[in-house]
Amino acid sequence: MNRSILLSFDVEEFDIPMEFRHSIDAATQIKIGKKGLDAIQPILNEVTTTLFTTANFAEHFPVEIKQLSTKHEIASHTYFHGSFEINDLIKSRLKLEEVIGKSVTGLRMPRMKVIDMPSVINAGYQYDSSINPTWIPGKYNNLHLSRTQYLDHGMRRIPASVSPNLRIPLFWLSFKNMPYQFFKSLCIQTLRKDGYICLYFHPWEFTPINDFKLPVYTRRWCGDELVNRLMQLIGDLKNEGDFIPMNQLPA
User: Domains plus CATH for the chain?
Assistant: First the structure.
């Protein structure tokens, strides 16, 4: 079959309420981020994933992150989810390597923030997954970029997957808001066309977040319901390919 499924989670502080002008203290952000990581344990037990982790989160839970690194790829999500300085690229990589005792080769910027590849190269990374090659109103318009992996200034970039024709994004918000069978069919179509699929979520989605003042489209299918929904997708996709960490995707 030789088709690859790249399932990844952005392991981070739960700061999304701040995007919608609602305050949330740092301790609560970390607490809910950890609850999410605990909630997705059935998924992490089932398949191998890539965990794009902020160094700040890893500093709070070094034992847990090191244990996860025995099965899953740990990659960088910079140092803090809510703020960024260019030195955070190398600082986060070094801190994560200190925590897990092995090399960290991948990067994903928080919120798919634009970052120049020479800086990523200089910070010692081997691939970047900070591109969603679609149009999200109010966020970004990347319709001009490749749907599939490509080189940028010599850096390997692995975009989040979008459907082959209309570039429908196959990311966390789509999974929450599309009918399941439609999302699954787009995943299979993309997987068969491209030979791999790159999907990403956040652990905090898998906690009960209905009490937070967030738009309905961000909190639909949260908690255990979302765990079950994703486990169903994993079961369906296992018939189409193998789940591998992103750093093992053939060039």
Answer: 4-248 (3.20.20.370)
